[in-house]
Each structure stands twice: as structure tokens, then as C-alpha cells.
Design a protein that fits this description.
The complex is a heterodimer. Chain A is an alpha/beta fold. In chain A, the strands form 8 sheets. An 8-stranded mixed β-sheet of chain A has the order 5-4-20-19-18-6-7-17. In chain A, strand 12 (about 355) and strand 13 (about 360-365) form a beta hairpin. By secondary structure, chain B is α+β, with helices and mostly antiparallel strands. Chain B has 11 helices and 14 strands. In chain B, strand 3 and strand 4 form a beta hairpin. The longest helix of chain B is centred in the last third of the chain and has 16 residues, at about 290-305. The chains are: A alpha/beta, B alpha+beta. At the A-B interface, helix 1, helix 2, helix 3, strand 3 and helix 10 of A face helix 1, helix 3, helix 6, helix 10 and helix 11 of B.
Chain lengths: ~950, ~350
């Protein structure tokens, strides 16, 4: 890499400009006495222009001038802050460079009796103006000139970089197959113009795009198993209608900084805030009741609460009968639901039954949740005759559940979860008393190996108390809210005839599904499932397990997980053979080219050294597209500099917690960085041109059809309509294709910075919230189900607690059950857990020097005092952490807030922040839980962002010693 | 005495410990040479040694009206501006042998070193966040200590400022300030500290730490404005108290003291007989009135829990965010600077 101005020269020479110069002048001037502090004099004393130094009165004017600016541009941080996304920022520009930022803070109050959303933001956003100029930035396209990971780079031109990458892509798709080109999409994806470019190129090249949601560990499998979907969430101001709020499995005070005030203010408004967590966390300290629990003990806790609710008859029977599967009948002989296929030859596998005291065993309603006069039995044992004449005994799930819960008396559960029995009873009492109980969503529990069981138990508690649909109520899955114009925009590059064909086929298909009783969301999910079947979408988690070599870390799983009866590899083979889950490329077909788009798999993926060992040698070309150097960029062949967040026009998805789409303009430029849209447009052009220059005409897609290289660039740009620098036109088109941002125009959005969603829309990532968005009200999920009686997208069409798929029966998980966490990594005494950090969004600020100075300048691992004392470890000591997989070194941070036995190493330190480059994830095996390989049944089949195997880390066992 | 006094109230029950105030201030004011190590706004986990280290035991202020000797904190007590080796790691060609680390001597302190540690014994451990800025005291020890008369307290709003033209860097102010919120600029050889964002305040804009606080912790306004939040919280409801009133400087930053979840007895049962954060610790920070303030807060919260209304809690909730700023609620982006 050629030398350039170092950071200090750069900032002082260009950015500081006015102030630095002025400061110098001021020092030379005689001080003038008694400058007026009144506001009148101030305006005149300040200038925005660089040319003339301002007339300084005295030292006060230095400060006054420091605050001044040339122009203000609306922008935001287009990173996946998820729960805290997003915030409208004003970017203050001085001398062409971003000088600082401040929250715009002009959101309207939605209703007078709930607080407004201002001034959303956090410390990370408040210093991006510094981060964007720091030495982690990538300034030019870089090509590796040493071994991978050697840190030896050559600066090359964009043309050279894109031509070389295009050649590798062409070679791969022509000679080996389109599925060998992998897109690894990271947490930087906006689903705005940036992602639109990637989407078009992927479709044109028929390459493989990884769905990384479950790999991150955000799969919320328990929610998906129970509700048939994982996305449903309220708006953060809806907590104002709750009288009990459970922070159960998360730490929103540290990780949902812009939302947290709603929780704490709801508390002042009269809600009780209960925090269920192992440690005295930043959220626990603000609670009215902190409930300590062993890490991984939450299923036992939830089931014990359920035990109290059921035994005390404190449940909402009407809700349970109508909205849940608890009245449905289960056969005692097979432990499976009684199905129409049992009762009549050729009967429907998906039709289930309930018992009504007057009408006997009848079909459970499927197209509408209304019971129409039925009063399903929750108890009892009934005999039915099968179509082969055999008589079997059936029972409602509720009766089976009640027996099942007998094992979870508070005293018995206390042994499993560490929560005192009296506290469990108190929690049950408060839940039963609450008019509207809500849960705060986080993605912590879903990162446990048995997280699905824990989530199912949580959902059970809320369902038993009827806490869904009412304002301020509800267990929640995962928050996601996006415009629904992305797919249409991507497909709009095809000619009208093809689009008409696709459109017509789609309408026919939808009509057919609707006739079969599919709701709108079921239709959306069904389509996603087909794209998993055909390889258009691929489970990232399975990709890394199978192609990345990660499964090697699960080889000792039977030793770690006492509930496991056979090797997980065997279950995987069965799952792939039966079409329960899918992997692309097909096993044996090695991936060759990988694009990491604002993604960082070597930082993110547990047991990442296995990727370097197994996957990296298979890859011919590894390209990282990012605005900064990352652990993955350092092991890539090419690093392409993407525009930073203030350097491109963008709009980005959010969540219902904050139901405003955010958009903004380009405030400045940075060296040779380009917007992602431009990078993809130019890459499309390079592929087109290189193929022509080399005389390569066509390639075969994975369906076996010939596709021409010629015209690829024209298709990408819609025949020039969306050229490489037309980001804003793309941004505008995406809005126009969307149904849930009525009346929102790009020209206004980019100036205003935000616009409230007018509906949840039809995108797969949003539709699950199943409710209306009104301009003057808070958002409560599931009103469609609870009040309009629309069926849930599950096998039973209800909130489903009983799962009778083969693997669930094999593993004893038909009903939610407590299982001790596996000893992942070996039988060591300490449990290494984690959580999102206050200090970074993923790794984007992990090596930021301002953020590091507010920590200890390096990774730390929280440790309890008793555990440290037993090992002779003092606060600040360097320790070695190890297990059967690997080891790393880190600074120990001792805290009485930690539960003995638990270690916390917060999220997303880069590998290059550890001695020897040994990142802390190197010893996290992320064992593959076989139950996650399930499929086949209506709602257990994989779809976008859920119901695929996931990666987990909270069960990792280690020992620690002084380094 | 100034004619009027600007003040702030920090509601510790809403503080997230996120340090957005810290960073907002840093990005606006302390980025010049010589200011790198400064954090005019800080947040510390309490109990803890704080910023600068052990500031509570560093003397200064007044006892019975008599100035007390104080200790001069070192740069290490504040925490230095660590430098890192990004270039070497990313582009130095050293592979895994180079990793990102603080250059020079490994530090043993920083401005937020004891974050989330606190005191007590699990499961009855406790902590809370304490944000601090210059208290813009009514009786500023720094002002009295300055032999150069370089420290002024503004007539119109009571903001305490160090006149950098007059300051000669003797640092008596740093010794005298019992809150240790003054830094020394080694490059310019002057003392510097929080200026209550006077350039913003002059334009009707709330200080950056307050306006940028996502937890909506910081109320701003004139103390004597009966319609503003400060008067309501300090004078009317008496739930906001100064930190270490015994330091004798009459601070103008007030704190709504922290509540805490109930503790557990030896058998693990909820034990409400005494609070998780010991009363004596809170009294040591905020004086004996803290117990009354907490009682008022709890009584009002009991009202809203029973479905009732509370004027106090409505103020603290701040349904309209702008209501927190006592009229200093202008949007800074609406200002257009005119060329001279």
C-alpha cells in the first residue's frame, strides 16, 4: 500500500482548517476586554466560510466558532443496530469534511399519553464522524501480495480489481457452476440501494446467497416453532400500556440505548419492571424485581411459572381454547396429533382435532380461529376409531402438559434454574395479576443450544395468561420492519414480457394457496420455502457446518450433550436425504468465490479457525467489500473500499420498535471509496466486458438453462436507467415499489431523514407482526390473530406448544422441557457466555479508539470474585482461557455483579485484538443441535431467517488460569 | 451571586451508563491538541473510584466556609489518551504476530475503568451510574483559588468559565475543586473544563450532553423558573439533590437518587427490610435528605401503580422531550451562520 498522509496530518491539514488556524491567530492577538455574552453579538462573530478568519473578541469566540458549521446533511449509521435501529442524525459539515454529528431529534409524538421517540441515538453514532477518518478505513482497492492474512497489500485501481474478480467469477460459473459463487451478507446490509445492487447481481449470476440470521444466533427457533414465524414485535412506546414488563434474557439498558427510556419511563408510569438474568446487569439495576437465574436455566423457570399458573387455575381458559393448540388431541399410542389421515384413508395430514363436550371429537377450525360455539375440552381421555378400525386413546395437549409440568414444581425447578422457589411463585403471582404483561425482545436466549426450549417455555407463560394482542402485552419474537419493494425492484430489471409471465404465475399460485386456506403470510412463507428448496436462498449456518468444516467441532457432541442418542452427523445426513433441510452448493461441490459484503465471518463465526483450515483452501477468490479493515478483510484476496455511512445516499430497514424508515443523503466523499450500488454496477459491467473480451458467451444456471453474458450490464442497470452513480434513483424506485410507505417520496425522505411506516407490508421480514400501523397509535403485534382470528402459520394454525415431528419425539422435546446446557468444548467448570456490547454494533466500533478509551483499551472478560479468588486472579490480570478446542488470552475484569460460575465476554471483539490473533470465538464449538435439522412438517420447514440450524455460543465451557 | 443560575438535574433512574453525553461533549469540545485526554462530561459506575481516580478523597472545597487543601490529580488518574497501532496491524505485513494494543506502557486506569463493577456480594451486589460535569457552583472553590482571577461566574446565568486569556496554568483551581472536574492542557498551558455549552445556551440550544442524552436523563433550565423542570424537581418536589453537599461549594447539578431492586436473604427470599444500595452509602453521596427524596419518589410511583396520576412522575417521564430543557429547546440545525 502506498503511503499517504497519516491521520493526524490529514485531520489537521484538511479538517480542522478554520478552527486550528483561527486558534493560532487568536493566540497572537491581544485579548480584548469584556466581550458580550449576549446572543446578539454571537451570530455576527461566527462564520461558516473558510476564506476570512473571523473577528475574534476573546477566548470565548474560539468556543463559539468551534461549534459553527458550513452545512447540515441528514444521515444515519446504515449498520444493523437491529433492536436500536435507527436514529436520524444531522451531520455537520465543515470545509467539506464531516466535523461532527448530532441527533436530529424531530420525531413527532405519536399520542399525547406516550413519550416521543426523541432524541434517539447513542455514543457510537455520536462519534462516527471520528471513526470515519480513523486508520481502520480502507482508502483504495487492495490486493493481497503475501500469504492470506500476512497483511501485505498492494494498492490497485478499481478497474484492475474488478476485472480480476470478474475473471474469477466467469471461470467459476462457466467451468464449475453458478452455485460455487457465494455471497456472504453481513450485518451491514441495508435492504436499500446497497442491497438492491447485490440482489440484482446475484440473480443475474445465479449465485448462492447465504442467509446468515440463524448463523448469527438470531434464529429465535423457539418462537418459530411455536408461532410458525419469528418476526413479531411492538413499538417501543407500546410499553406504556403494560403494567408488567419482563426483561427476560437480555440487557436493553446497554443494548437498546435509544429504546430504553420507554422502559424506564413506563416504570414511572406504573409498570413493574422485572429483569430475569444471571447477573446484576445494567438492566437489572433499574428493575423493580431482579430474578436471578442460572445461564441456560430459563426453560425450567418458565415451566415452573407455568406449573403455578396451571395448578392455581390462574390461566386464561378462553384464550387457551381459541388461540393455542392446548385443546388439540394427541394419540397416547404414538404421541402424535390425531390427524385426518388417521381417521380416513387419504385424509389430510394437517387436519387436527379437538373434543367438544356436546359434539365429541371434531375437526379443529383451520381457516379462522373462532370456535363457533365449540367449547373444547382441556382435560379428559377419549377413544377414537381409526380408519383401519383400531381404537386409540387421545388426550388434549393441555392434559398432557399438566402432567408434564408436575416435574416443575417451584422447588424442583429451583434446583435446575437456580431461582429460589419463593421468587418463582412471586413471579407467577405477578404474571397472573397483570392486566397486560409484555416481554422485552432480545436475541440472547436464542444463542443457547437449548434456546428453543427456553423460548417455548417463555411463550407458554404468556399464552397461559392470555397476554397477546392487547396493547402493551405479549411475548415477542424478533423485531424487523422493512419496505416491501426490494424483490420487485430486483426483478424489474427483466423485460416486461418475462415480468408479466412471472407476475401471472405468481397470481395463479397465490390463488391456489389461498383456496387451500393459506393466509397472506403463509403465502409469503411458502414462497420463501421454495427458494430454500431450489437454492435461491441458503442457510448460512448449514453452509459453514458443511462447506466450512465447522461440523468438526461437533464431533464430541455426544459426550457433551447427555440427551443425545446418536451422532449428529447421522441426523444431518438423514435431514438432507429426507429434504428437511438443504445445503447449496451440494455437498462435494466446493465453493470457489466468496464475496463478503460488509460481513466479517472470521470474526463472527464460532470456531472460525476451522473456516481457515477447511473453507479457505477451497476458495479461489475471497473479496471483502467494507469501509474498514476487519478480521475477514485481513484474510481476503481483495479488499474493496465501500463508502462509509455519511458517504452515500441510503435508506434502511428498522424494526417495529421504532417504526420509521430512515434515509439520508451523501455528506462527503472519502478517498476512492464507492457506494455498494456503484461497486456492484461496475462489477456487473466488468463481468459483461471481460466475458466479451475473452469470447465467453454463456454459462449454465443451476436449473441447467443457458444464460448469456451479453447484455448482463444492461439488465443490471435496466438499460441505463440505474447507472453506477444513480443510488438516489434506486432509493426512490425502492420506495415506489413498496406498499407500506404510502406517500413517502425519496426527495422528502432524504431531507427529513425519516418517515413513519404506514403498514407492516408483505415482506417476509415484516409480515409476521400481523397487525395494523396507525399514524396516531402505538403498535401491538398479533391483533390479526387475537382479534381478527386469522390463523397462525403453524401446522395446527394455532400457537403451538406440541411438536410431533420425528426428531422432537426422539429427543423428548414434544413439549417444552428443561435440558441442562451441554458441556460445549469439554467438561470444564466455567460457562463462558456473552451478549451484545454497549460499546459497538457488532465489530464496527470495536477497535475505535474513543470507544476503547471508555473501556480498558482491549478485550476484557467479566469474572465473578469467588471464581477469580479461587484461581489467584486479580482485577486487570491477563488470563488464559482454554478448553478442548483452543485457547486465548484476555484481561480479566472482576465484578461482584457476576454470578459465580459464569464468565461474560461481550460481543464482537476482532481477532486482531487478541495476542497472536487468537480471537475468543476460537474455542466456541457451536455444536449443531440435531433438533434444528427437523423439517418436513408444515411450519418446521426452513424459510428466510428461521427454522434452519443455528450457531450458538452461550453453553461454552472453559477453564481460566493466569497467563 | 449571579442574577440567575442555570442548572441541571440528572435522573439516575433513567441513566443507561451509555456515555453518549461523554462522547457528545468530546466530539464538540475536547478534540484539539492538548485536550485529547479530557472528558469534561463523564459517567462512572458507583460505588467506584471514578474519574479522576479517587476524586472523592482528593480534598478541596470548603468546610465551615474554610477552603480545604486538595490534591492535584495526575493525567494517569484521569486516564491518558491511549494510542493504538492500527496501521501496523492492518498494513504492516506482520500477520498474526502484530495485534492491536495500546502503545507505550500498559495503563492501569481510565475514565471508565471500573464500569459495571460496583460493590456488595452476589446476589446482593449493587451499582448505579453517576454522570458528572462541572457543577457550576454557586460558591466555586476554583474561582476563589485562582490568583489570576481568571475564573468568572457569569452574571446572567451563573455559568462558571475559565478565562483562557488570563489563565497562566497554575492549577490551583484543580486542587481546589472538590469534584476534580478541571483538566490541564499541557499544550496551551491553561486549565480547561465544562463550559455548560455556553455558545449553544446563548443561542437557546440545550448543552450537547443534555440534548444528545438518549436516556432523557438531563433536565436543563434556570433554577428560579417555576415553569421549568429544575424548580419543580429541586424546590417543589425536593427529589433532586446536589452531590456531596458537604464539599461546601453549592453545586448547581442535582441528582434524582437511584432506586434499586430488592435484595435477597440468606435463603434466597426477597428481603425488603433494607434496600440493596445501602442507605448510608447514598447519604454519603447526597446527604441525609436523600432518604426523604427516595421516599417521595416511591410514594409517587405507588400512586401511578395504583392507576393514579403524579405531577412529579409526569415531569420525570417528559412525554414531550423538549419539556426537559426549560426553554433551551431550539434545534441547532435550524441556525444558519452568516458570513461576516
Amino acid at each position: 500500500m502506498s503511503p499517504s498522509m497519516d491521520r493526524r496530518t490529514f485531520l489537521v491539514g484538511a479538517a480542522v482548517g478554520t478552527a486550528a488556524l483561527a486558534l493560532g491567530l487568536w493566540r497572537l492577538r491581544p485579548a480584548l476586554s469584556g466581550g458580550s455574552a449576549g446572543s446578539g453579538a454571537v451570530g455576527a462573530a461566527l462564520v461558516g466560510a473558510v476564506a476570512a478568519p473571523p473577528p475574534y473578541g476573546d477566548w470565548r469566540d474560539v468556543y463559539r466558532n468551534r461549534w459553527a458549521w458550513d452545512k447540515v446533511v441528514r444521515s444515519s449509521h446504515w449498520v444493523n443496530c437491529w433492536y436500536q435501529a435507527h436514529c436520524a442524525w444531522n451531520v455537520y459539515v465543515k470545509d467539506g469534511l464531516v466535523w461532527r454529528e448530532e441527533q436530529a431529534a424531530d420525531y413527532p409524538q405519536v399520542r399525547p399519553d406516550v413519550p416521543d421517540f426523541n432524541p434517539r441515538g447513542c455514543q457510537k453514532g455520536a462519534c462516527f464522524s471520528e471513526r470515519m477518518y480513523d486508520p481502520a478505513r480502507v482508502k483504495y482497492p487492495l490486493k493481497r501480495v503475501g500469504e492470506r492474512g500476512s497483511g501485505k497489500w498492494q494498492r490497485i485501481s478499481w478497474d484492475q480489481a474488478l476485472d480480476e474478480i470478474a475473471d474469477s467469477v466467469i471461470d467459476t460459473i462457466v467451468n464449475e457452476g453458478t452455485d460455487r459463487v457465494i455471497w456472504d451478507l453481513g450485518p451491514g446490509i441495508s435492504l436499500g440501494p446497497q442491497t438492491a445492487g447485490q440482489g440484482r447481481l446475484r440473480v443475474l449470476l445465479d449465485s448462492t446467497s447465504l442467509d446468515m440470521n440463524t448463523e448469527i444466533g438470531d434464529g429465535h427457533r423457539g418462537a418459530a416453532e411455536t408461532f410458525g414465524k419469528m418476526v413479531f414485535e411492538r413499538s417501543a412506546d407500546d410499553y406504556f400500556f403494560s403494567d408488567l414488563i419482563l426483561i427476560w434474557g437480555g440487557n436493553p439498558v446497554a443494548t437498546q440505548i435509544p429504546n430504553a427510556h420507554f422502559l424506564l419511563e413506563a416504570r414511572y408510569h406504573g409498570a413493574q419492571l422485572v429483569c430475569i438474568a444471571p447477573d446484576v446487569s445494567p438492566s437489572s439495576i433499574h428493575a423493580d424485581l431482579w430474578v436471578p437465574v442460572k445461564p441456560g436455566g430459563d426453560a425450567a423457570l418458565g415451566l415452573a411459572v407455568a406449573h403455578e399458573l396451571v395448578e392455581g387455575r390462574l390461566y386464561d381458559a378462553a384464550f387457551v381454547r381459541e388461540q393455542t393448540d392446548l385443546p388439540l388431541l394427541v394419540r397416547e399410542d404414538t404421541r402424535r396429533f390425531l390427524r385426518a389421515s388417521d381417521l380416513e384413508s387419504g385424509g389430510d395430514e394437517n387436519v387436527l382435532y379437538l373434543h367438544d363436550p356436546k359434539r365429541g371429537v371434531v375437526e379443529a377450525p383451520r381457516r379462522h380461529l373462532g370456535l363457533g360455539g365449540l367449547e373444547p375440552s382441556l382435560e379428559g381421555r377419549f377413544e377414537v376409531a381409526l380408519h383401519d378400525g383400531k381404537k386409540v386413546s387421545v388426550r388434549p395437549v393441555f392434559a398432557v402438559l399438566r402432567e408434564h409440568l408436575a416435574a416443575y414444581t417451584p422447588e424442583a425447578a429451583a434446583e435446575l434454574c437456580g431461582t429460589p422457589a419463593s421468587v418463582i411463585r412471586e413471579l407467577a403471582k405477578r404474571l397472573a395479576r397483570a392486566k397486560s404483561a409484555a416481554m422485552v425482545t432480545t436475541s440472547n436466549i436464542t444463542k443457547y443450544y437449548h434456546g428453543n426450549l427456553m423460548e417455548r417455555a417463555q411463550a407458554l407463560v404468556f399464552a397461559l395468561t392470555g397476554n397477546f394482542g392487547k396493547k402493551g402485552s405479549g411475548f415477542v419474537g424478533f423485531p424487523f420492519l422493512m419496505h416491501d419493494g426490494l424483490n420487485e425492484f430486483v426483478l424489474s430489471m427483466f423485460d416486461l414480457r418475462l415480468r408479466a409471465l412471472i407476475g401471472a404465475a405468481s397470481l395463479v399460485d397465490e390463488a391456489r394457496l389461498k383456496l387451500a386456506g393459506f393466509t397472506d403470510e403463509m403465502v409469503v412463507y411458502e414462497r420463501s420455502r421454495r427458494s430454500f428448496e431450489s437454492g435461491q436462498e441458503v442457510s448460512g449456518a448449514l453452509f459453514w457446518y458443511v462447506h466450512g468444516g465447522l461440523l468438526e467441532a461437533s464431533e464430541k457432541l455426544q459426550d457433551w450433550d447427555p440427551y443425545l442418542k446418536r451422532p449428529v452427523r447421522q441426523v444431518l445426513d438423514e435431514s438432507l436425504a429426507k429434504g428437511w433441510q438443504y445445503v447449496w452448493p451440494k455437498p462435494g461441490n466446493d465453493p470457489r468465490v466468496m464475496f463478503s459484503l460488509v460481513s466479517n465471518p472470521l470474526r463472527r463465526i464460532r470456531a472460525y479457525p476451522l473456516l481457515l483450515k477447511t473453507l479457505w483452501p477451497k476458495l479461489r477468490t475471497i473479496v471483502t467489500i467494507d469501509w474498514r479493515m476487519t478480521s475477514t478483510a485481513m484474510h481476503s484476496d481483495y479488499v474493496l473500499p465501500a463508502a462509509g455511512w455519511y458517504e452515500r445516499a441510503e435508506h434502511k430497514w428498522v424494526t417495529p420498535l421504532m417504526p420509521f424508515i430512515h434515509g439520508g443523503e451523501k455528506a462527503t466523499t472519502f478517498y476512492e471509496a464507492k457506494s455498494d450500488w456503484e461497486i456492484f454496477a461496475r462489477l456487473a459491467r466488468a463481468v459483461d466486458r471481460r466475458a466479451a473480451a475473452r469470447g465467453v458467451k454463456a454459462f449454465k444456471d443451476r436449473a441447467g438453462r443457458d444464460r448469456s453474458f451479453e447484455g448482463l450490464y444492461d439488465r443490471f442497470t435496466s438499460n441505463g436507467e440505474f447507472g453506477p452513480t444513480d443510488d438516489e434513483k434506486v432509493a426512490s424506485a425502492l420506495l415506489q415499489y413498496s406498499s407500506n410507505l404510502e406517500g413517502v417520496e425519496w426527495e422528502q425522505l432524504k431531507k427529513k431523514g425519516w418517515a413513519r411506516f404506514t403498514g407492516i407490508g408483505n415482506a417476509i421480514a415484516s409480515i409476521g407482526t400481523a397487525t395494523r400501523i396507525k399514524p396516531d397509535d402505538t403498535i401491538t403485534p398479533f391483533t390479526d390473530h387475537v382479534f381478527e382470528k386469522k390463523p397462525y402459520p403453524t401446522l395446527s394454525r394455532r400457537i403451538q406448544f406440541y411438536l410431533d415431528q420425528d426428531l422432537y419425539l426422539e429427543l423428548g422435546e414434544a413439549l417444552p422441557v428443561h435440558k441442562d446446557p451441554p458441556a460445549a468444548g469439554g467438561h470444564y467448570p466455567l460457562q463462558l457466555t456473552g451478549g451484545h456490547t454497549r460499546w459497538s454494533i457488532h465489530a464496527a466500533w470495536r477497535d475505535d479508539h474513543l470507544m476503547l478509551r471508555q473501556q480498558r483499551g482491549q478485550p476484557v472478560m467479566y469474572m465473578s470474585r469467588p471464581d477469580a479468588d479461587a484461581r489467584g486472579i486479580s482485577d486487570g490480570a491477563r488470563v488464559r482461557v482454554f478448553n478442548d478446542l483452543a485457547s486465548f488470552e484476555v484481561m480479566a475484569k472482576l465484578s461482584p455483579a457476576l454470578r459465580p460460575g459464569q464468565l461474560i465476554l461481550y460481543h464482537a471483539w476482532e481477532n486482531f485484538q487478541f495476542a497472536g490473533g487468537k480471537g475468543f470465538q476460537n474455542l466456541i464449538p457451536s455444536p449443531l443441535n440435531p433438533v434444528e435439522l427437523a423439517g418436513g412438517q408444515f411450519h418446521l420447514r426452513p424459510m428466510t431467517i428461521c427454522l434452519q440450524p443455528s450457531h450458538t455460543d452461550r453453553d461454552t465451557r472453559v477453564e481460566v488460569e493466569r497467563a | 451571586m449571579s442574577k440567575r443560575q442555570l442548572a441541571m438535574v440528572f435522573d439516575l433512574n433513567k441513566c443507561l451508563g451509555c456515555q453518549t453525553c461523554t462522547i457528545a461533549c468530546k466530539r464538540l469540545w475536547t478534540r484539539e491538541e492538548g485536550m485529547e485526554y479530557m472528558w469534561w462530561a463523564t459517567v462512572n459506575t458507583m460505588p467506584g473510584r471514578g474519574t479522576p481516580r479517587d476524586w472523592e478523597q482528593s480534598g478541596g472545597g470548603f468546610r465551615d466556609g474554610v477552603a480545604q487543601a486538595g490534591r492535584l490529580p495526575t493525567k494517569e488518574d484521569f486516564g491518558d489518551a491511549w494510542e493504538f497501532n492500527h496501521e501496523e496491524v492492518f498494513f504492516g505485513g506482520k500477520g498474526d504476530s502484530a495485534y492491536l494494543k495500546i502503545q507505550g506502557q500498559e495503563p492501569d486506569w481510565g475514565p471508565n475503568w471500573d464500569e459495571d463493577q460496583g460493590a456488595g456480594e452476589y446476589p446482593n451486589s449493587y451499582y448505579f451510574y453517576l454522570p458528572r460535569i462541572c457543577n457550576h457552583c454557586t460558591h466555586p472553590a476554583c474561582l476563589e483559588a485562582c490568583p489570576r482571577k481568571a475564573i468568572i461566574k457569569r452574571e446572567e446565568d451563573g455559568i462558571v468559565l475559565i478565562d483562557e486569556d488570563r489563565c497562566r496554568g497554575y492549577r490551583f483551581c484543580m486542587e481546589a475543586c472538590p469534584y476534580k472536574k478541571i483538566y490541564f492542557n499541557q499544550v496551551k498551558k491553561v486549565s480547561q473544563k465544562c463550559i455548560f455549552c455556553f455558545p449553544r445556551v446563548e443561542q437557546g440550544v440545550a448543552p450537547a450532553c443534555a440534548r444528545q442524552c438518549p436516556g432523557r436523563v438531563r433536565f436543563v433550565g434556570y433554577k428560579d423558573d417555576p415553569n421549568g423542570p429544575i424548580w419543580k424537581l429541586v424546590e417543589k418536589w425536593k427529589v433532586a439533590l446536589p452531590l456531596h453537599p458537604e464539599f461546601g461549594t453549592e453545586p448547581n447539578v442535582y441528582y434524582v437518587p437511584p432506586l434499586s431492586p430488592p435484595r435477597f436473604d440468606a435463603a434466597g427470599n426477597i428481603d425488603e427490610s433494607k434496600p440493596r444500595i445501602p442507605d448510608e452509602y447514598l447519604v454519603s453521596l447526597f446527604g441525609p435528605k436523600v432518604l426523604e427524596a427516595l421516599a417521595v419518589l416511591k410514594a409517587e410511583m405507588a400512586k401511578t401503580r395504583a392507576g393514579g396520576k403524579s405531577e412529579l412522575l409526569d415531569v420525570l417521564i417528559a412525554y414531550e422531550w423538549k419539556s426537559m430543557f426549560g426553554g433551551f429547546d431550539k434545534d441547532p440545525a435550524s441556525i444558519e451562520w452568516k458570513k461576516v
